[in-house]
Protein backbone atom coordinates (compact mmCIF):
# COMPACT_ATOMS: atom_id res chain seq x y z
CA UNK A 1 0.00 0.00 0.00
CA UNK A 2 1.17 3.50 -0.78
CA UNK A 3 -0.04 6.84 0.55
CA UNK A 4 0.77 10.55 0.39
CA UNK A 5 0.46 13.17 3.13
CA UNK A 6 -3.10 14.53 2.86
CA UNK A 7 -4.72 11.23 1.79
CA UNK A 8 -7.47 9.52 3.79
CA UNK A 9 -7.39 6.16 5.50
CA UNK A 10 -10.63 4.16 5.27
CA UNK A 11 -11.38 1.65 8.01
CA UNK A 12 -14.06 -1.03 7.76
CA UNK A 13 -15.33 -1.17 11.34
CA UNK A 14 -16.97 -4.03 13.23
CA UNK A 15 -20.16 -3.61 15.26
CA UNK A 16 -20.26 -4.20 19.02
CA UNK A 17 -21.06 -7.90 19.68
CA UNK A 18 -23.35 -6.92 22.58
CA UNK A 19 -25.64 -4.97 20.22
CA UNK A 20 -25.60 -7.84 17.71
CA UNK A 21 -26.66 -10.31 20.44
CA UNK A 22 -29.51 -7.99 21.47
CA UNK A 23 -30.92 -7.94 17.93
CA UNK A 24 -30.81 -11.76 17.89
CA UNK A 25 -32.67 -11.83 21.21
CA UNK A 26 -35.36 -9.32 20.15
CA UNK A 27 -36.02 -11.05 16.83
CA UNK A 28 -35.90 -14.58 18.30
CA UNK A 29 -33.39 -15.83 15.74
CA UNK A 30 -30.35 -18.09 16.05
CA UNK A 31 -27.56 -15.81 14.79
CA UNK A 32 -25.58 -18.77 13.40
CA UNK A 33 -28.32 -19.43 10.82
CA UNK A 34 -27.07 -19.12 7.23
CA UNK A 35 -29.23 -17.09 4.84
CA UNK A 36 -29.13 -15.33 1.46
CA UNK A 37 -30.81 -12.07 0.45
CA UNK A 38 -31.57 -11.92 -3.28
CA UNK A 39 -32.40 -8.72 -5.15
CA UNK A 40 -35.89 -9.05 -6.69
CA UNK A 41 -35.01 -6.44 -9.32
CA UNK A 42 -33.60 -8.69 -12.02
CA UNK A 43 -32.31 -5.71 -14.02
CA UNK A 44 -30.02 -4.67 -11.17
CA UNK A 45 -26.31 -5.42 -11.49
CA UNK A 46 -26.25 -6.09 -7.74
CA UNK A 47 -27.58 -9.56 -6.92
CA UNK A 48 -27.14 -9.26 -3.13
CA UNK A 49 -26.96 -6.24 -0.75
CA UNK A 50 -23.81 -7.76 0.83
CA UNK A 51 -21.79 -10.96 0.33
CA UNK A 52 -24.16 -13.96 0.54
CA UNK A 53 -24.74 -16.65 1.73
CA UNK A 54 -23.75 -15.54 5.21
CA UNK A 55 -24.87 -15.87 8.82
CA UNK A 56 -27.08 -13.35 10.58
CA UNK A 57 -24.21 -12.76 13.00
CA UNK A 58 -21.76 -11.89 10.20
CA UNK A 59 -24.29 -9.62 8.47
CA UNK A 60 -25.07 -7.74 11.70
CA UNK A 61 -21.40 -7.55 12.70
CA UNK A 62 -19.76 -6.53 9.42
CA UNK A 63 -22.32 -5.46 6.82
CA UNK A 64 -25.22 -3.60 8.44
CA UNK A 65 -25.32 -0.27 10.25
CA UNK A 66 -27.05 -1.00 13.57
CA UNK A 67 -25.98 2.14 15.46
CA UNK A 68 -27.32 4.99 13.31
CA UNK A 69 -30.70 6.65 13.92
CA UNK A 70 -33.11 4.72 11.67
CA UNK A 71 -34.76 6.68 8.84
CA UNK A 72 -38.55 7.16 8.76
CA UNK A 73 -39.19 4.45 6.11
CA UNK A 74 -37.63 1.88 8.50
CA UNK A 75 -40.02 2.97 11.28
CA UNK A 76 -42.98 2.59 8.90
CA UNK A 77 -42.00 -1.01 8.16
CA UNK A 78 -41.35 -1.73 11.86
CA UNK A 79 -44.86 -0.54 12.77
CA UNK A 80 -46.31 -3.55 10.91
CA UNK A 81 -44.67 -5.86 13.46
CA UNK A 82 -46.17 -4.22 16.60
CA UNK A 83 -48.93 -6.07 18.45
CA UNK A 84 -49.54 -3.08 20.77
CA UNK A 85 -51.75 -0.52 18.94
CA UNK A 86 -50.16 2.42 20.81
CA UNK A 87 -46.63 1.41 19.73
CA UNK A 88 -47.83 0.76 16.17
CA UNK A 89 -49.43 4.22 16.03
CA UNK A 90 -46.34 5.94 17.47
CA UNK A 91 -44.05 4.40 14.81
CA UNK A 92 -46.58 5.23 12.06
CA UNK A 93 -46.82 8.82 13.23
CA UNK A 94 -43.03 9.25 13.29
CA UNK A 95 -42.80 7.92 9.74
CA UNK A 96 -45.45 10.36 8.48
CA UNK A 97 -44.81 13.78 6.96
CA UNK A 98 -47.20 15.59 9.36
CA UNK A 99 -45.66 18.38 11.51
CA UNK A 100 -46.59 16.39 14.64
CA UNK A 101 -44.91 13.23 13.27
CA UNK A 102 -41.78 15.10 12.23
CA UNK A 103 -41.49 16.72 15.68
CA UNK A 104 -41.90 13.36 17.43
CA UNK A 105 -39.28 11.74 15.15
CA UNK A 106 -36.88 14.62 15.85
CA UNK A 107 -37.37 14.28 19.60
CA UNK A 108 -37.77 10.50 20.10
CA UNK A 109 -35.25 9.25 17.52
CA UNK A 110 -32.78 12.07 16.78
CA UNK A 111 -32.54 14.06 20.06
CA UNK A 112 -32.77 10.93 22.23
CA UNK A 113 -30.31 9.23 19.86
CA UNK A 114 -32.10 5.87 19.50
CA UNK A 115 -30.73 3.17 17.25
CA UNK A 116 -32.55 0.01 16.11
CA UNK A 117 -31.65 -1.85 19.34
CA UNK A 118 -33.03 0.97 21.51
CA UNK A 119 -36.28 1.02 19.51
CA UNK A 120 -36.78 -2.73 19.97
CA UNK A 121 -36.01 -2.38 23.71
CA UNK A 122 -38.45 0.51 24.16
CA UNK A 123 -41.21 -1.10 22.07
CA UNK A 124 -41.47 -4.62 23.48
CA UNK A 125 -44.41 -5.57 21.23
CA UNK A 126 -42.36 -4.88 18.08
CA UNK A 127 -41.01 -8.22 16.81
CA UNK A 128 -39.71 -7.71 13.28
CA UNK A 129 -38.47 -10.56 11.13
CA UNK A 130 -34.68 -10.52 11.06
CA UNK A 131 -34.70 -11.15 7.27
CA UNK A 132 -36.72 -7.98 6.78
CA UNK A 133 -34.48 -6.05 9.16
CA UNK A 134 -31.40 -7.11 7.15
CA UNK A 135 -33.13 -5.74 4.07
CA UNK A 136 -34.11 -2.44 5.73
CA UNK A 137 -30.94 -1.48 7.58
CA UNK A 138 -28.34 0.54 5.60
CA UNK A 139 -24.91 -0.85 4.80
CA UNK A 140 -22.18 -0.25 7.37
CA UNK A 141 -19.94 2.32 5.67
CA UNK A 142 -16.16 2.59 5.95
CA UNK A 143 -14.99 5.41 8.22
CA UNK A 144 -12.57 7.91 6.66
CA UNK A 145 -9.75 9.56 8.60
CA UNK A 146 -7.29 12.20 7.45
CA UNK A 147 -3.85 10.58 7.50
CA UNK A 148 -1.58 12.25 10.06
CA UNK A 149 1.83 11.08 8.87
CA UNK A 150 4.14 11.49 5.90
CA UNK A 151 5.45 8.49 3.93
CA UNK A 152 8.77 10.34 3.69
CA UNK A 153 9.15 9.77 7.45
CA UNK A 154 6.92 6.69 7.91
CA UNK A 155 7.02 4.65 4.68
CA UNK A 156 5.74 1.46 6.35
CA UNK A 157 3.13 2.77 8.79
CA UNK A 158 0.14 5.07 8.48
CA UNK A 159 -1.07 7.30 11.33
CA UNK A 160 -4.54 8.66 12.08
CA UNK A 161 -5.64 11.15 14.74
CA UNK A 162 -9.15 10.53 16.06
CA UNK A 163 -11.27 11.09 19.14
CA UNK A 164 -12.68 7.94 20.74
CA UNK A 165 -16.44 8.55 20.64
CA UNK A 166 -18.28 7.60 23.86
CA UNK A 167 -21.21 9.43 25.40
CA UNK A 168 -24.43 8.98 27.38
CA UNK A 169 -27.74 9.59 25.61
CA UNK A 170 -30.76 11.40 27.10
CA UNK A 171 -32.39 7.97 27.72
CA UNK A 172 -29.47 6.99 29.98
CA UNK A 173 -27.78 4.67 27.51
CA UNK A 174 -24.05 4.55 26.83
CA UNK A 175 -23.30 4.94 23.11
CA UNK A 176 -19.94 4.16 21.56
CA UNK A 177 -18.54 5.20 18.19
CA UNK A 178 -18.37 2.11 15.97
CA UNK A 179 -14.89 2.55 14.51
CA UNK A 180 -13.01 4.47 17.19
CA UNK A 181 -13.97 2.22 20.13
CA UNK A 182 -13.20 -0.86 18.01
CA UNK A 183 -9.78 0.54 17.01
CA UNK A 184 -8.92 1.80 20.51
CA UNK A 185 -8.68 -1.71 21.97
CA UNK A 186 -6.42 -2.97 19.15
CA UNK A 187 -3.18 -2.43 21.03
CA UNK A 188 -0.07 -4.46 20.25
CA UNK A 189 0.92 -6.84 23.07
CA UNK A 190 4.50 -8.15 23.29
CA UNK A 191 4.77 -11.78 22.28
CA UNK A 192 1.30 -11.86 20.70
CA UNK A 193 0.27 -11.62 17.08
CA UNK A 194 -0.29 -8.02 15.98
CA UNK A 195 -3.93 -6.90 15.76
CA UNK A 196 -5.26 -6.32 12.23
CA UNK A 197 -7.92 -4.10 10.67
CA UNK A 198 -9.38 -4.02 7.14
CA UNK A 199 -8.31 -0.71 5.59
CA UNK A 200 -7.67 1.00 2.27
CA UNK A 201 -6.18 4.33 1.20
CA UNK A 202 -8.36 6.95 -0.49
CA UNK A 203 -6.46 9.47 -2.58
CA UNK A 204 -7.30 13.12 -1.94
CA UNK A 205 -6.73 16.50 -3.56
CA UNK A 206 -5.35 17.86 -0.29
CA UNK A 207 -1.71 18.29 -1.27
CA UNK A 208 1.36 20.31 -0.30
CA UNK A 209 2.65 22.76 -2.95
CA UNK A 210 5.02 21.02 -5.38
CA UNK A 211 7.83 23.43 -4.45
CA UNK A 212 8.82 23.30 -0.77
CA UNK A 213 9.82 26.99 -0.88
CA UNK A 214 6.15 28.00 -1.39
CA UNK A 215 4.90 29.40 1.96
CA UNK A 216 1.83 27.80 3.56
CA UNK A 217 -0.74 28.62 6.24
CA UNK A 218 -2.53 25.66 7.86
CA UNK A 219 -5.64 26.06 10.02
CA UNK A 220 -6.46 22.91 11.99
CA UNK A 221 -8.12 23.07 15.40
CA UNK A 222 -8.58 19.80 17.34
CA UNK A 223 -8.21 16.66 15.24
CA UNK A 224 -8.15 19.02 12.23
CA UNK A 225 -4.41 19.00 12.95
CA UNK A 226 -4.18 15.48 11.44
CA UNK A 227 -3.11 16.12 7.81
CA UNK A 228 -0.90 19.03 8.85
CA UNK A 229 1.24 16.76 11.02
CA UNK A 230 2.06 14.89 7.80
CA UNK A 231 2.64 18.15 5.92
CA UNK A 232 5.02 19.45 8.62
CA UNK A 233 6.94 16.15 8.71
CA UNK A 234 7.35 16.36 4.94
CA UNK A 235 8.56 19.98 4.98
CA UNK A 236 10.97 19.13 7.79
CA UNK A 237 12.38 16.24 5.77
CA UNK A 238 12.92 18.61 2.79
CA UNK A 239 14.69 21.05 5.11
CA UNK A 240 16.95 18.31 6.48
CA UNK A 241 17.73 17.27 2.90
CA UNK A 242 19.10 20.78 2.35
CA UNK A 243 16.19 22.20 0.35
CA UNK A 244 14.92 25.75 0.81
CA UNK A 245 11.59 25.56 2.67
CA UNK A 246 9.14 28.47 2.70
CA UNK A 247 7.29 29.81 5.74
CA UNK A 248 5.26 27.05 7.40
CA UNK A 249 2.54 28.51 9.64
CA UNK A 250 0.11 26.47 11.76
CA UNK A 251 -2.98 27.70 13.57
CA UNK A 252 -4.00 25.10 16.15
CA UNK A 253 -6.64 25.31 18.83
CA UNK A 254 -8.11 23.13 21.56
CA UNK A 255 -9.87 23.62 24.89
CA UNK A 256 -7.07 23.24 27.43
CA UNK A 257 -3.31 23.23 26.91
CA UNK A 258 -2.76 20.65 29.65
CA UNK A 259 -5.46 18.26 28.43
CA UNK A 260 -5.76 18.26 24.65
CA UNK A 261 -2.71 19.89 23.07
CA UNK A 262 -2.01 16.83 20.90
CA UNK A 263 1.53 16.26 19.57
CA UNK A 264 2.66 19.15 21.80
CA UNK A 265 6.32 18.10 22.09
CA UNK A 266 6.64 17.35 18.39
CA UNK A 267 5.15 20.71 17.33
CA UNK A 268 7.21 22.72 19.80
CA UNK A 269 10.37 21.00 18.55
CA UNK A 270 9.53 21.96 14.96
CA UNK A 271 8.99 25.52 16.18
CA UNK A 272 12.34 25.51 18.02
CA UNK A 273 14.15 24.27 14.93
CA UNK A 274 12.87 27.31 13.00
CA UNK A 275 10.72 25.29 10.59
CA UNK A 276 7.32 26.12 12.04
CA UNK A 277 5.49 29.25 13.18
CA UNK A 278 2.83 28.26 15.74
CA UNK A 279 -0.30 30.26 16.59
CA UNK A 280 -2.08 28.56 19.50
CA UNK A 281 -5.58 29.13 20.86
CA UNK A 282 -6.62 27.40 24.10
CA UNK A 283 -10.27 28.38 24.36
CA UNK A 284 -10.85 27.50 28.03
CA UNK A 285 -7.54 28.56 29.56
CA UNK A 286 -8.73 32.11 30.29
CA UNK A 287 -11.95 33.85 31.28
CA UNK A 288 -12.89 34.86 27.70
CA UNK A 289 -12.78 32.15 25.04
CA UNK A 290 -10.08 32.46 22.40
CA UNK A 291 -10.46 30.52 19.16
CA UNK A 292 -8.27 30.05 16.10
CA UNK A 293 -10.50 32.56 14.25
CA UNK A 294 -9.54 35.30 16.77
CA UNK A 295 -5.84 34.68 16.11
CA UNK A 296 -6.38 34.82 12.34
CA UNK A 297 -8.12 38.19 12.71
CA UNK A 298 -5.14 39.54 14.64
CA UNK A 299 -2.67 38.35 12.00
CA UNK A 300 -4.08 40.01 8.89
CA UNK A 301 -0.61 41.24 7.86
CA UNK A 302 0.83 37.73 7.91
CA UNK A 303 -2.10 36.32 5.90
CA UNK A 304 -1.77 39.08 3.28
CA UNK A 305 2.01 38.67 3.05
CA UNK A 306 1.96 34.89 2.67
CA UNK A 307 -1.16 34.46 0.55
CA UNK A 308 -1.06 37.48 -1.77
CA UNK A 309 2.46 38.90 -1.79
CA UNK A 310 4.18 35.48 -1.82
CA UNK A 311 1.56 33.40 -3.65
CA UNK A 312 1.27 31.02 -0.69
CA UNK A 313 -1.21 28.23 -0.06
CA UNK A 314 -3.96 28.16 2.57
CA UNK A 315 -5.26 24.91 4.06
CA UNK A 316 -8.21 24.36 6.37
CA UNK A 317 -9.06 21.10 8.12
CA UNK A 318 -11.72 20.21 10.69
CA UNK A 319 -15.28 21.29 11.39
CA UNK A 320 -17.27 22.14 8.26
CA UNK A 321 -20.20 23.74 10.07
CA UNK A 322 -18.79 26.87 11.66
CA UNK A 323 -14.98 26.83 11.65
CA UNK A 324 -14.40 26.56 7.87
CA UNK A 325 -16.89 29.33 6.92
CA UNK A 326 -15.49 31.54 9.73
CA UNK A 327 -11.97 31.19 8.35
CA UNK A 328 -13.16 31.91 4.82
CA UNK A 329 -14.93 35.07 5.98
CA UNK A 330 -11.82 36.28 7.83
CA UNK A 331 -9.63 35.74 4.75
CA UNK A 332 -12.26 37.59 2.64
CA UNK A 333 -12.11 40.49 5.10
CA UNK A 334 -8.29 40.58 4.91
CA UNK A 335 -8.53 40.77 1.11
CA UNK A 336 -11.02 43.63 1.36
CA UNK A 337 -9.09 45.59 4.00
CA UNK A 338 -5.54 45.07 2.76
CA UNK A 339 -6.22 44.86 -0.96
CA UNK A 340 -8.86 47.55 -1.19
CA UNK A 341 -11.20 44.99 -2.79
CA UNK A 342 -14.96 44.97 -2.57
CA UNK A 343 -16.78 41.81 -1.48
CA UNK A 344 -17.22 40.58 -5.04
CA UNK A 345 -13.54 41.00 -5.89
CA UNK A 346 -12.42 39.29 -2.66
CA UNK A 347 -14.75 36.37 -3.35
CA UNK A 348 -13.44 36.12 -6.94
CA UNK A 349 -9.86 36.13 -5.62
CA UNK A 350 -10.61 33.19 -3.28
CA UNK A 351 -12.37 31.31 -6.10
CA UNK A 352 -9.28 31.80 -8.27
CA UNK A 353 -7.11 30.49 -5.41
CA UNK A 354 -9.32 27.39 -5.26
CA UNK A 355 -8.95 26.68 -8.98
CA UNK A 356 -5.18 27.14 -8.62
CA UNK A 357 -5.30 24.63 -5.72
CA UNK A 358 -3.94 27.33 -3.40
CA UNK A 359 -7.01 27.25 -1.13
CA UNK A 360 -7.88 23.72 0.05
CA UNK A 361 -10.30 22.38 2.65
CA UNK A 362 -10.54 18.90 4.19
CA UNK A 363 -13.61 19.28 6.38
CA UNK A 364 -16.28 17.13 8.01
CA UNK A 365 -19.50 17.84 9.91
TrEMBL record:
One of its GO terms (molecular function) is FMN binding. Keywords: FAD, Flavoprotein, FMN, NADP, Oxidoreductase. One of its GO terms (cellular component) is cytosol. InterPro entries: CysJ-like_FAD-binding, FAD-bd_FR_type, Flavoprot_Pyr_Nucl_cyt_Rdtase, FNR_nucleotide-bd, NADPH_Cyt_P450_Rdtase_alpha, OxRdtase_FAD/NAD-bd, Riboflavin_synthase-like_b-brl. Its EC number is 1.6.2.4. Its cofactor is FMN; FAD. The keyword rRNA-binding does not apply. CDD domains: CYPOR. Residues 1-209 form the FAD-binding FR-type domain. One of its GO terms (biological process) is response to hormone. This is NADPH--hemoprotein reductase. It comes from Tenebrio molitor. The lineage of its organism: Eukaryota, Metazoa, Ecdysozoa, Arthropoda, Hexapoda.
